Amino acid sequence: MSAALQVTAFGLALLSTLLLLLATCTDCWMVNADDSLEVSHKCRGLWRECVTNMQDGVRTCDQYDSILADHPVKIVVTRTLMITADLLAGLALATLVLGLDCITFLKEDPCVKLKMCYGAGVILCTGSILGLIGSVWYAVDVYMERAMLVSHNIFLGVHYEFGWSCWLGMAGSMGCFVASVLL
Protein backbone atom coordinates (compact mmCIF):
# COMPACT_ATOMS: atom_id res chain seq x y z
CA MET A 1 0.00 0.00 0.00
CA SER A 2 1.29 3.43 -0.88
CA ALA A 3 2.72 5.40 2.03
CA ALA A 4 1.18 8.63 0.70
CA LEU A 5 -2.26 7.01 0.61
CA GLN A 6 -1.80 5.73 4.15
CA VAL A 7 -0.76 9.15 5.45
CA THR A 8 -3.68 10.79 3.64
CA ALA A 9 -6.11 8.28 5.14
CA PHE A 10 -4.56 8.82 8.57
CA GLY A 11 -4.88 12.61 8.31
CA LEU A 12 -8.49 12.36 7.20
CA ALA A 13 -9.25 9.82 9.93
CA LEU A 14 -7.64 12.03 12.57
CA LEU A 15 -9.58 15.12 11.47
CA SER A 16 -12.83 13.15 11.23
CA THR A 17 -12.34 11.59 14.65
CA LEU A 18 -11.81 15.04 16.13
CA LEU A 19 -15.04 16.20 14.47
CA LEU A 20 -16.89 13.20 15.93
CA LEU A 21 -15.52 13.93 19.40
CA LEU A 22 -16.43 17.60 19.09
CA ALA A 23 -19.95 16.72 17.96
CA THR A 24 -20.40 14.35 20.89
CA CYS A 25 -19.17 16.88 23.46
CA THR A 26 -20.90 20.02 22.19
CA ASP A 27 -24.48 20.98 22.89
CA CYS A 28 -26.04 22.43 19.78
CA TRP A 29 -27.70 19.46 18.11
CA MET A 30 -31.00 21.33 17.84
CA VAL A 31 -31.22 25.12 17.49
CA ASN A 32 -34.29 27.31 17.57
CA ALA A 33 -35.19 28.75 14.19
CA ASP A 34 -37.93 31.18 15.07
CA ASP A 35 -38.54 33.75 12.34
CA SER A 36 -39.90 36.40 14.68
CA LEU A 37 -37.90 38.89 16.72
CA GLU A 38 -35.49 36.76 18.75
CA VAL A 39 -34.50 37.68 22.26
CA SER A 40 -32.54 34.51 22.92
CA HIS A 41 -30.84 31.71 21.04
CA LYS A 42 -31.54 28.21 22.36
CA CYS A 43 -29.50 25.07 21.63
CA ARG A 44 -30.37 21.57 22.79
CA GLY A 45 -27.73 18.91 22.95
CA LEU A 46 -27.04 15.43 24.18
CA TRP A 47 -25.85 16.58 27.59
CA ARG A 48 -27.53 19.92 28.32
CA GLU A 49 -29.65 22.76 26.97
CA CYS A 50 -28.15 26.24 26.60
CA VAL A 51 -29.77 29.62 26.08
CA THR A 52 -27.79 32.66 24.90
CA ASN A 53 -29.23 36.13 25.42
CA MET A 54 -28.91 37.96 22.09
CA GLN A 55 -28.65 41.41 23.65
CA ASP A 56 -25.74 40.92 26.04
CA GLY A 57 -24.35 37.54 24.93
CA VAL A 58 -24.76 35.88 28.35
CA ARG A 59 -24.99 32.10 28.01
CA THR A 60 -26.83 29.96 30.54
CA CYS A 61 -26.83 26.17 30.41
CA ASP A 62 -29.07 23.69 32.19
CA GLN A 63 -27.53 20.26 32.54
CA TYR A 64 -29.81 17.27 32.36
CA ASP A 65 -30.47 15.75 35.81
CA SER A 66 -28.52 12.55 35.38
CA ILE A 67 -27.20 10.34 32.64
CA LEU A 68 -29.31 7.54 34.12
CA ALA A 69 -32.51 9.62 34.29
CA ASP A 70 -35.35 9.07 31.86
CA HIS A 71 -34.52 10.89 28.64
CA PRO A 72 -36.13 10.90 25.21
CA VAL A 73 -35.11 7.95 23.05
CA LYS A 74 -33.37 10.19 20.53
CA ILE A 75 -30.94 11.44 23.19
CA VAL A 76 -30.18 7.99 24.63
CA VAL A 77 -29.67 6.35 21.24
CA THR A 78 -27.61 9.22 19.85
CA ARG A 79 -25.41 9.32 22.95
CA THR A 80 -24.79 5.58 22.75
CA LEU A 81 -24.05 5.56 19.04
CA MET A 82 -21.81 8.63 19.13
CA ILE A 83 -19.77 7.43 22.12
CA THR A 84 -19.33 4.02 20.46
CA ALA A 85 -18.31 5.70 17.21
CA ASP A 86 -15.77 7.85 19.10
CA LEU A 87 -14.26 4.80 20.80
CA LEU A 88 -14.07 2.81 17.57
CA ALA A 89 -12.52 5.71 15.67
CA GLY A 90 -9.92 6.14 18.42
CA LEU A 91 -9.11 2.42 18.34
CA ALA A 92 -8.83 2.56 14.55
CA LEU A 93 -6.44 5.51 14.77
CA ALA A 94 -4.21 3.67 17.26
CA THR A 95 -4.19 0.58 15.04
CA LEU A 96 -3.53 2.66 11.94
CA VAL A 97 -0.59 4.47 13.52
CA LEU A 98 1.06 1.13 14.24
CA GLY A 99 0.29 -0.13 10.74
CA LEU A 100 1.68 2.85 8.81
CA ASP A 101 4.69 2.06 6.61
CA CYS A 102 6.55 5.12 7.88
CA ILE A 103 6.45 3.82 11.49
CA THR A 104 9.25 1.45 12.48
CA PHE A 105 6.99 -0.82 14.56
CA LEU A 106 7.07 -4.34 13.01
CA LYS A 107 9.20 -3.08 10.12
CA GLU A 108 10.44 -6.62 9.42
CA ASP A 109 6.93 -7.98 8.84
CA PRO A 110 5.10 -5.89 6.20
CA CYS A 111 2.30 -8.46 5.93
CA VAL A 112 1.25 -7.80 9.53
CA LYS A 113 1.43 -4.04 9.00
CA LEU A 114 -0.83 -4.36 5.96
CA LYS A 115 -3.33 -6.41 7.96
CA MET A 116 -3.27 -3.75 10.67
CA CYS A 117 -4.13 -1.09 8.07
CA TYR A 118 -6.98 -3.21 6.72
CA GLY A 119 -8.21 -3.87 10.25
CA ALA A 120 -8.08 -0.16 11.04
CA GLY A 121 -10.14 0.47 7.90
CA VAL A 122 -12.80 -2.03 8.99
CA ILE A 123 -12.96 -0.60 12.52
CA LEU A 124 -13.13 2.94 11.12
CA CYS A 125 -15.92 1.95 8.74
CA THR A 126 -17.92 0.43 11.59
CA GLY A 127 -17.46 3.54 13.73
CA SER A 128 -18.41 5.81 10.86
CA ILE A 129 -21.62 3.90 10.20
CA LEU A 130 -22.58 4.07 13.89
CA GLY A 131 -21.81 7.81 14.02
CA LEU A 132 -23.80 8.45 10.87
CA ILE A 133 -26.77 6.47 12.18
CA GLY A 134 -26.66 8.44 15.45
CA SER A 135 -26.45 11.82 13.72
CA VAL A 136 -29.13 11.03 11.16
CA TRP A 137 -31.37 9.46 13.83
CA TYR A 138 -31.30 12.70 15.82
CA ALA A 139 -31.81 14.84 12.71
CA VAL A 140 -34.77 12.77 11.51
CA ASP A 141 -36.33 12.91 14.97
CA VAL A 142 -35.99 16.72 15.02
CA TYR A 143 -37.58 16.88 11.57
CA MET A 144 -40.43 14.52 12.54
CA GLU A 145 -41.11 16.51 15.73
CA ARG A 146 -41.35 19.70 13.69
CA ALA A 147 -43.47 18.07 10.96
CA MET A 148 -45.87 16.65 13.54
CA LEU A 149 -46.39 20.07 15.11
CA VAL A 150 -46.95 21.66 11.69
CA SER A 151 -49.37 18.94 10.58
CA HIS A 152 -51.46 19.45 13.74
CA ASN A 153 -51.36 23.26 13.34
CA ILE A 154 -49.60 23.63 16.68
CA PHE A 155 -47.30 26.59 16.97
CA LEU A 156 -45.44 26.93 20.25
CA GLY A 157 -43.62 30.10 19.27
CA VAL A 158 -40.37 28.28 18.58
CA HIS A 159 -39.40 25.52 16.21
CA TYR A 160 -36.09 23.75 15.98
CA GLU A 161 -33.70 22.91 13.16
CA PHE A 162 -30.48 20.92 12.99
CA GLY A 163 -27.68 22.51 14.97
CA TRP A 164 -24.00 22.64 14.08
CA SER A 165 -23.18 19.69 16.36
CA CYS A 166 -25.47 17.49 14.28
CA TRP A 167 -23.72 18.63 11.10
CA LEU A 168 -20.30 18.02 12.71
CA GLY A 169 -21.37 14.48 13.58
CA MET A 170 -22.45 13.81 10.01
CA ALA A 171 -19.26 15.35 8.56
CA GLY A 172 -17.02 13.42 10.96
CA SER A 173 -18.80 10.17 10.18
CA MET A 174 -18.54 10.70 6.44
CA GLY A 175 -14.84 11.60 6.76
CA CYS A 176 -14.20 8.40 8.73
CA PHE A 177 -16.03 6.43 6.06
CA VAL A 178 -13.96 7.99 3.26
CA ALA A 179 -10.77 7.26 5.23
CA SER A 180 -11.84 3.64 5.68
CA VAL A 181 -12.44 3.33 1.94
CA LEU A 182 -8.97 4.76 1.27
CA LEU A 183 -7.48 2.13 3.56
TrEMBL record:
Keyword field contains Transmembrane: yes
Keywords: Cell junction, Cell membrane, Membrane, Signal, Tight junction, Transmembrane, Transmembrane helix
Species annotation: Pheucticus melanocephalus
Signal peptide feature range: 1-33
Pfam (any one): PMP22_Claudin
GO terms for MF: structural molecule activity
Entry protein name: Claudin
Family to which this protein belongs: Belongs to the claudin family.
InterPro entries found in the cross-reference section: Claudin, Claudin16, Claudin_CS, PMP22/EMP/MP20/Claudin
General function of this protein: Claudins function as major constituents of the tight junction complexes that regulate the permeability of epithelia.
Predominant localisation class: other
Membrane topology: Multi-pass membrane protein
Transmembrane segments: 118-140, 160-182
Subcellular localization: Cell junction, Tight junction; Cell membrane
Entry GO terms, CC: bicellular tight junction; plasma membrane
